[in-house]
């Protein structure tokens, strides 16, 4: 019974994450220039809070080895640096998002190939966001998209499409799991 509760909680969190991606994409599209500074601030806050939460959890669980604390400390320090140097960080954030989009595109391509090899129906649904991610990552990393306003609009469109395709994939996969 607890496994089912954990699965529902994880599914709900996954679906919520995709909805947030869509909303973040709409935010990028609407606010263009200001969005990058706001996203950098939000990213800094999330990194700091996430790192601090992991540090507190490590101390509560008495897992205070350097292995358990190194990543949370780096995450929290990185978040604080982003918050302190917000304006300068807006130059680096697009590069990081470009790497993220490229890696996500490659991972989704691998998943699509594995689905195709396993003869999973609708495996091609993974190809569309994979291609979008690879294209977006290449555009950002090669400097093709270097104006903040153009970057934020393209990133917004990418996030909206990625969120929508992930939501569709979520329901297709869930339906497949419920009705094999």
Summarize the structure.
This protein is an all-alpha fold. It has helices at 2-31, 33-60, 66-84, 86-117, 127-141, 148-178.
Describe, in plain words, how this protein is organized in 3D.
With 180 residues, the protein is mainly alpha-helical. 86% of the residues lie in helices and 0% in strands. The chain is globular.
Query: Which spans of ≥5 residues are poorly predicted at pLDDT below 50?
Result: 1-6
Write down the overall mean pLDDT: 78
Beta fraction: under 5%
Per DSSP, the total helix count is 6
Helix content: over 70%
H/E element order: HHHHHH
Gross geometry: globular
Q: What's the story with the biggest beta sheet? A: none
Give the tally of β-strands.
Answer: 0
User: What class do helices, strands and sheet pairing give?
Assistant: mainly alpha
The CA-CA distance between the termini, in Å, is: 21 Å
Cα Rg: 18 Å
Write the layout of secondary structure elements.
Layout: H1 2-31, H2 33-60, H3 66-84, H4 86-117, H5 127-141, H6 148-178
Helix pairs in contact: 1-2, 1-6, 2-3, 2-4, 4-5, 5-6
List keywords for this structure.
single chain, mainly alpha, about 85% helix, globular
